[in-house]
Structure formats: C-alpha cells, structure tokens
C-alpha cells in the first residue's frame, strides 16, 4: 500500500522560523523553564543547524547568544570548592556593582552538568573557539560530582544522580578533550550494572529499562571509548530491545505510546550500535510527520499536541537519521550536527598541537572522523563499531 505521508514534505522553513522564534522570545507558557534556558537555546540553535538554517541568526544575535552563554560560566576561585561549569539561567547573576550583593550571590553559583553540556554544544555549533574557557576547572567540576559507584550528580550542592548526568559528564569531557580526575572505570561499572534483564538500561540501579536512559548509557560508553568492552552477544540483545521499541514511531518502554523524541533516543542508540538500518524508515517518518504542526511549524510529542523546541529538535534529528533531504547529518552520540562536530575536531587538533600531544588517544575521534568521511560519500575502510554506521549509509 502506498504510504500516504511518504510524499508529505517536512516543512523545513516553518520549522526554522519556529525555532528562531525561541531565540527571540520565550512564550509565557514556558516561563517555568527559565532556569534551564540554555537547554532551550540548545534545541533552537542546534535545530537550526540541522535545518541548514543558522544563517537566519543575524551576526549580532549570534554574538549575543555566545556572550549570554559565557555569562553563565562559573570559574571557582582558589579557596572555593570545585563548582566549575555553566549555569542554566542568569537569576544568580545580579546586574549590580554592589560588592556585598555580588559576594552573597557567589554562594549560589555553580555549574550544572546538563547546562554545561548544552552550553558547550551551543558554543561549538555557533563556531566559537572555546578560548574563553578554563577547561580544567570545568572537568574538575565534573569529577567533583562523580559518586563512588560511578554515577554523577547534576551539581555540587545536592541533586539527583543518574544516567542522564553520566551522559552529560561524558559529553563535557569529550568536547573538552580532557577527562582529568573523572573515573572512567567506575563510570563503566555503573553503566553496565544498570543493564536490565531485557537488555535495555535503567536510569539508576534496579530501575526499569528506558529508551532515553539506554541512549545516555550507550553514548557515554561510546564517548569514553569503552563501547568495545561490551561483548557481541550483549550488543545483539541490546539491538533487539531497541528495535522492538518501534511501533510506527518509537516508544520509550514496552506497552507505552510512541512519542516523537524516541525517534532520536532509540534511533541514535541503534546508530551507535550499528543497527539503525534494521528499522522501518517509512513508518518512522510517517509518525514523526503526523506530529508536525503545519501552521506554525515544529513537532509535538503526539499528533494534535502542541509543538515544543525539545520535540522539534529531536524529531528533526530522528528524520536526519533516515536521510531526510534538506537536513544535515547528525552525530548520534554528541547530539549535534556533523558540521558542528567537524568544528569540534578542528579545535581538538589545535589543542593537541599546542599541548604537544600526539594521536595516541583519539580512537573515538577517529571513528567519528570516519563517519564524517562516509557522510561525504567516501567508502568505509575500517571495521570498528561505528565506522560503517547505518546513519551514514542511509544518507
Ligand atoms: Zn517525548
């Protein structure tokens, strides 16, 4: 039977216009998200990048965004605890010259792993050279929130600790090309202990396997160069759990409704494991397009629901994995475009050259480099886990 939506267009320009709007104005209904505003900037900027539409961001706005991101950077002083990283909003940065107030507010400023990850991703995507960062203080902040069992808290002054922040920790260290005192071994142990009987990963030990968590676990293993430590049988069973999450779109757990964002969480997980080609691209696309808002652009969680930046960005990434025309290839582990990833690789090369470091520690980077070459139509020449990713062959 002919797929009715197969020829339905992805409304690229409407999605770009929708995301651009969030860079200029946060609607009142999203006011409660103000304390995580950098994540909204991340969805909008990275979404525009995947849409090949970053040129729509005027140069002054682009610079304003970069400056705003840096305005949330916390660099600890010598006598302070390791609280380096980025904050998600500027509520704790008062616009005053009053030294007493500034000193008082200092007690409430600390980096948050999710905000640090999204802030770095925005800077990289906008082409910043990260030269204003003290990379060590940020990674010291990451190491300071690692738990003895290998998990990570979001920030130094009390928060949840689970697989989401394991992922954020891995992305931060990978992007800064520095792992410092982060314990990769206990991180690996925490991740593998969270593998459940059905071969999905749970948010924390003894929890239920979940699609978003499984992405966090696999991407963290990939970015930390530890994916190869999973044996082949385990990987095949993980693929099975992931593939069985497809109904038309993807669900996050068995017996749950499908949701646009899982086209990314599950899709990216399968890309990392080299199994995305086993999914039904047409039905995935059909579901994602059923959540497309034809009037104002954007994708929603479900059909007829209100679109939001989160589902818009992840819906676009899910479509990018299937090779949708007009969309840029997406790096599944870092959750950013391959163009942004290429810029990051360039920065790494510069840092390594300045540090006098060789290429001995770039195994993960090499795998990604190969994906980049493949995306340009160059044949695969290696058999490493990610080298012949279906992500690229599909595009
Ligand atoms: Zn969702």
TrEMBL record:
Note one Pfam family from the annotation. Prenyltrans
The record, for Gene3D superfamilies, names:
1.50.10.20
Assigned protein family: Belongs to the protein prenyltransferase subunit beta family.
> Transferase: is it a keyword of this entry?
yes
- Quote the catalytic activity from the record: geranylgeranyl diphosphate + L-cysteinyl-[protein] = S-geranylgeranyl-L-cysteinyl-[protein] + diphosphate
- A GO term, aspect molecular function: CAAX-protein geranylgeranyltransferase activity
Q: Does the keyword Hydrolase apply?
A: no
Residue stretches making up the Prenyltransferase alpha-alpha toroid domain: 13-336
Q: Which PANTHER family match?
A: GERANYLGERANYL TRANSFERASE TYPE BETA SUBUNIT, GERANYLGERANYL TRANSFERASE TYPE-1 SUBUNIT BETA
Q: What class of enzyme is it?
A: transferase
Q: What is this protein called?
A: Geranylgeranyl transferase type-1 subunit beta
| Cofactors, names only | Zn(2+); Mg(2+)
Which keywords does this Swiss-Prot/TrEMBL entry list?
Answer: Magnesium, Metal-binding, Prenyltransferase, Repeat, Transferase, Zinc
InterPro entries xrefs = GGTase_I_beta, PGGT1B-like, Prenyltrans, Terpenoid_cyclase/PrenylTrfase
The record, for CDD domains, names: GGTase-I (cd02895)
Gene Ontology BP annotations: embryonic heart tube development; positive regulation of Ras protein signal transduction
On assembly, the entry states: Heterodimer of FNTA and PGGT1B. PGGT1B mediates interaction with substrate peptides.
According to the record, the signal peptide region is none
Look up the EC number in the record and give it. Answer: 2.5.1.59
Q: Which GO terms describe its cellular component?
A: CAAX-protein geranylgeranyltransferase complex
